[in-house]
Write a structure and sequence with these properties.
Elements: H1 18-28, H2 34-60, H3 65-76, E1 81-82, H4 84-91, H5 95-107, E2 111-115, E3 123-127, H6 129-148, H7 155-177
Antiparallel strand pairs: 1-3, 2-3
Helix pairs in contact: 1-2, 4-5
Length: 178
């Protein structure tokens, strides 16, 4: 199951330098990989910082990150419709949490629920015209805001970053599977 950054008990702003890691290795007689540990700690910190910055930017548009994630998943689906359980899985949150988010989004008239056509015990969540209009109004600014975070980085560096992140992701999956 994916962990939401808000579930973390802390965010480390002051991570040890490579030199501090080296010193701790000597003091504690460890053999921690200095560059690997330092890089991963920076990645974790920067990931938290990025999520916090994006969440703050979304708040400026009057929507929480969680609600935006639901709207974005509905927008990405071909017909702008998904079940609550599909939304929960795609966003990485519980079904109960999705229900609360759906309630709020429905009050904003950005989505509506309807009876599932194949299972009357279930519902489909659908993006409304107001929801589509809201997303269209904020997405250009949101995309520009996000791309500013990588401005000035050569494309080849970004491609290398993608490859590196894929390796880290695979290593993490292997750890979770084992």
């Amino acid at each position: 199951m994916a962990m939401n950054h808000l579930d973390l008990p802390f965010t480390t702003q002051d991570i040890p330098s490579r030199e501090e890691i080296r010193q701790q290795n000597e003091l504690l007689q460890l053999a921690l990989p200095e560059i690997g540990l330092h890089s991963l700690l920076r990645l974790m910190r920067i990931g938290n910082d990025l999520q916090a910055a994006v969440a703050s930017h979304m708040q400026e548009h009057g929507v929480s990150m969680a609600r935006f994630a639901i709207l974005a998943q509905l927008m990405r689906s071909g017909d702008h419709r998904l079940t609550p359980s599909a939304l929960a899985e795609r966003v990485g949150i519980t079904r109960a949490t999705v229900t609360g988010l759906i309630d709020g989004l429905e009050k904003s008239r950005w989505i509506h629920r309807q009876v599932h056509p194949n299972d009357r015990r279930s519902v489909i969540v659908e993006l409304t015209e107001e929801g589509v209009a809201f997303l269209r109004s904020i997405l250009p600014d949101h995309a520009e805001y996000i791309t500013r975070m990588v401005r000035g980085i050569p494309e080849e560096d970004l491609i290398h970053l993608e490859r590196t992140l894929t390796r880290v992701e695979k290593n993490l999956e292997a750890l979770n599977d084992g």
